[in-house]
Amino acid sequence: MTERLDAGRWTSTAPLLDQVAVAGLVRFERDARDQCRWEDMASSYAPDSVVHISWFHGSGAEFVARSRGIAERGLTGRHRLWPSLVRCNGDRAIAETDMAVELRRVVSGVEVDNTAYARLLTRARRTSDGWQIVRFESIYQRDTLVPVIPGTAPEIRQEDLAKYRSSYRFLSYLLALDGQELAQDLPGDDRPELVQAVRDAALQWLAG
């Protein structure tokens, strides 16, 4: 007997513990990243996991290693998470989590804060080690760039921003300054057809 309604609600409390566990997994993995707890972060990913976000596309294990390398270079960021919407189907689950990523950088000698707003789309699977992430990707919404000290402003040419999409424009610009050009075909609110394709694929996977 199915327990999931079309609206994503439930007719019984049976899946509630799974929902809580998967939501906790999402928060645990991001907190481990921010606090540089690399073993905890690695334990969140299944061996066959895939990560596809703005600056990385590869396995979960490779993602942890790259994240550690970035942190060791002093290029840290912080993730602020909203509550997750979790849908479960047996040993599979997807979680959608609104998130803000905060980065501090120096542009033209001026300290700036970049806040990128996105929606994490996480696929998780129940394993012998508990729930683990099997796919981790982001849907980009918008971002901002503001000076840390009011009254200061970095010199940024408009033509340097024009080639970047509105859903992750300043993130693209800052990472380009670090020598990393981001792909401009990622799912974002300014490309709803890409967002729909990513969500449809996740729901199809959830259905088995």
Characterization of this structure:
This protein is of the alpha+beta class and 208 residues long. Helix content is 32%, strand content 38%. It contains six helices and six strands. The chain has a six-stranded mixed sheet with strand order 2-1-6-5-4-3, with helices on both faces. Strand 4 (92-107) and strand 5 (110-127) form a beta hairpin. The chain is globular and about 55 Å long. The model is unreliable at 1-13 (pLDDT under 50).
Question: Could you name the key traits of this structure?
Answer:
208 residues, 6 helices, single chain, six-stranded mixed β-sheet, alpha+beta
> Mean of the pLDDT scores?
92
Question: Could you spell the SSE succession in H and E letters?
Answer: HHEEHEEEEHHH
Question: Which structural class matches the secondary elements?
Answer: alpha+beta
What is the terminal separation in angstroms?
A: 16 Å
Radius of gyration: 18 Å
Find the count of extended strands (DSSP E, 2+ residues): 6
Q: Trace the largest sheet across and list its strands.
A: 2-1-6-5-4-3
Strand content: 35-45%
Biggest sheet overview: 6 strands, mixed
What is the helix tally?
6
- Could you estimate the helical fraction of the residues in percent? 25-40%
Runs with pLDDT <50, length 5+?
A: 1-13
Shape: globular
